[in-house]
Predict the structure.
Amino acid sequence: MIYLDSAATSIYRPREVERALSRALSLGNPGRGGHRAAAEAARALYGARESFARHFKSEPGRVCFFYNATTALNVIVKSVVPRGGRILLSDMEHNALRRPALSLEKRGVKVDRFRGYGSGSEVLSSFQDALKKKPDLAAFVQCSNICPQTLPVKELCEAARRAGVPTVVDCAQSGGHLPVTLENTGADGLVFPSHKGLWGIAGAGILVSSERLAMLLEGAGTQMEGGSGIHSFEEGMPEFLPERLEWGTPALPAILSAEAGLQKIEEIGYGEIDDKLSALSEAVSEGIASIKGLSLAGMDGTPGKGGPLLFTRTGGNTEELCRRLYEKGICLREGFHCAPWAHETIGTGKTGGVRVSFSYFNGMEEVSRFLKVLENAVRN
Amino acid sequence: MYVYSGNDNKSGYKNGECVIAMPSQTYAIQGETLILGAGIPARVVRLPAGATKKGCAFGVAVSLRYLTQAVNILEKKGVRHGELLS
């Protein structure tokens, strides 16, 4: 099997992640009880908060764990944007932001989109125009999940800050690949899934929040309620983050696995990860470009190195092509990738495409074999 | 601030120990870490049942003689701590 679908989830996990998972199996429920198993679990959970806070430049009390990145984004968007308010997104968003925004639109919220595909200055200019309408929140993806387009997050957040607009960045594809922090972006919130670039298992979404976003979330009504381990008699959730946004039992295995993945990333270094992903992506990009009948889409904007690649087949059946690839053990993803806006924006709104995405753990020999299989499948 | 003097042998607290109530277990562990880091013995404890009207809660237990110092550490670092009694 050659797995080139790491944008969907990572199937490669370092040993450290496996050990963290093994440890998690014997932990109790953090904050539920005064016994040793619960106390050890609580310290493990706090340790994870510390790790994420240190890495992404926040405080442990402002690191919140949800069940996935989509839940985190839903909660932020629905908490911060009031009824009748306004939200600003890019035209490259995944359904993790598109759908909650459209759901809010049905409740009277205005949804504006800025141009997320183009050069950095084009994207920024479009964003600055949209800011004039004074949205309550600007939420946008850093790296597209269908092509290498990378938004100029630092510049966007700076512009939003000057306009008094809070920002949250969907780092689903950039987490673990780009050295993003609250400090170097100026964002108010960064959201990561546990199971992609952080190399953990699925089951956690991590919000790293600024003081400003934390105050907004603490001041807003809660979107969900449940057990919190404290203040059992109170009808509502605790007043403060993180417990205010963490209902029910935390997904400790997923959280600790992501923490272990993050620590491995720190050990390897973003530079080495970026070099590896760039080399893989470049090799595949050149290979696809040389195969007659295939063309890459979404390459005209600001392509970041190492991001996913999307190709289409001229006048041919892409599904049939993918079926042949799957028979040969090649794992890719065809279709619309839960990102219809992004496909419309880059011109594949009617056809969709086939996405190839990379992991630090992929090897050059794998991509070489993939390209040979792809070429044969197209020719025959 | 909630301060409990553990002299009754039923609460699980040591003699001369008092408990700084914290808003959540996250802050209790954070507070404990900071206080320990200053060389003051401290530990996270559950507040006794009925100690607060809100229900289950956590705090940081320190010796009474270190209480002022411990609270100062929390305030200097901006760690939430506070009253749970109403």
Q: What stands out?
A: The interface with chain A takes residues 23-27, 29-30, 44-46, 52-58, 80 of chain B (CB under 8 Å). The helical segments of chain B are 25-37, 67-76. Chain B has a mean pLDDT of 81. Strands of chain B lie at 17-22, 42-46, 58-63.
